[in-house]
Each structure stands twice: as C-alpha cells, then as structure tokens.
Amino acid sequence: MEGVGGDGAAASPVNVFWQDVWRRYQYLLDKSTPHTVYRWIGTAIVVLIYILRVYFVQGFYIISYGLGIYLLNLLIGFLSPLVDPEVDVSDGPMLPTKGSDEFKPFIRRLPEFKFWYSFTKAFCIAFVMTFFSMFDVPVFWPILLCYWIVLFVLTMRRQIAHMIKYKYIPFNIGKQRYGGKKPSASSSGSRGD
C-alpha cells in the first residue's frame, strides 16, 4: 500500500489504522443519513446527558453559554436560504418575491444533515470539556441566561422579519403538496374474490 504523500513509501500501521477508523466512521454517518428521526432521538439523548452533567456538577456555565451561541449560529444558517436576496443578486436559485414568480424550492444555507452533525458534535465536545476544571470559569449564570435569551429573541425577530419580507417558509409545514392521483373510494374498498 502506498503512503498518502505519493512518494511510494509504505504507510505506517498507525496511519492505516486511523484511515480505517475514519472510513468506518464515515460509513456509519452515510448509513444514518436517511434516518432523520432516529438521528435526532440520539442527539436528544446526548443533549440530556450534557444537561444532567452540568446540573449535577453545578458548573461549566460558560461552556453552556458558548454552546448556546454556537447553536444559535447553526440555527440561523439552517433557517436561511442559500442565496440571500438582500446580499447576493445572482443567476442561481432565488426565492420568489411575487405571486407571479416561478416556483423555486427553498435551499438551505446549512442542510439538515450538516446542521444535525454540527449540533451533535458541539454537544459532544462541550460534554468532554466539562471534565476539565480549567473550563469551569465562575460566572453568575442568570446573567448569561438572560443575555442569551435577549440575543435569541433579537436574532429570531430579525430572521422572521426576513422570512416575511421575502415570503419563504424554511419548513414543509403548511406548504401545498402535489401528489399523484388519489385512489377513489370504490377502488380502495375490499376486493370481491
């Protein structure tokens, strides 16, 4: 087997091992892609474990605050369109601004899988950080919580105003669905064999 550098040297067993571990990890990620509900259930378990850890240790609030800011940033990317009509005027897919405009699907700046992966990875990293006392900075947590809530409300208000202005909904809830022909009542009944 040749090395990564392409110089013809044999790869070290350690590199081969980590490449194999990474390949298996990527395989599991690829297999989990269509299972959205199960992925989010697993993430909810990770979040619960992190919350219990912070609650019982009674510390690491600054890590939780930083995690909250990062998650807010991810949420904004998840709710935003790929091409922002305010910033970028391009020939690519854009949001319709009038009723007579052609339908263009909503394409997220941050796709759901990447949102889930970053969300879960952030909680795992924050959980590991709670085992190191150097990250347990003494702070008055109610101030951090109030500041985060104010930041969340202001950011979401701006995002919702953007959604209203450009008339897009980043979710499938309430959108018109086009399906095939619905079976008639007589054909969906029991068969007379």
From TrEMBL:
Single GO biological process annotation from the record: retrograde vesicle-mediated transport, Golgi to endoplasmic reticulum
Membrane topology: Multi-pass membrane protein
Alphabetic keyword roster: Membrane, Transmembrane, Transmembrane helix
GO cellular component term, pick one: Golgi membrane
Subcellular location: Membrane
UniProt xrefs under Pfam families: Rer1
Record InterPro entries: Rer1
Primary subcellular site in the record, as a coarse category: membrane
Keyword check for Membrane: yes
Top-level taxon of the source organism: Eukaryota
Residues that span the membrane, as ranges: 37-56, 62-83, 139-156
Keyword Ligase recorded: no
Function: Involved in the retrieval of endoplasmic reticulum membrane proteins from the early Golgi compartment.
Homology family: Belongs to the RER1 family.
Protein name: Protein RER1
Annotated organism of origin: Carya illinoinensis (Pecan)
Organism phylogeny: Eukaryota, Viridiplantae, Streptophyta, Embryophyta, Tracheophyta
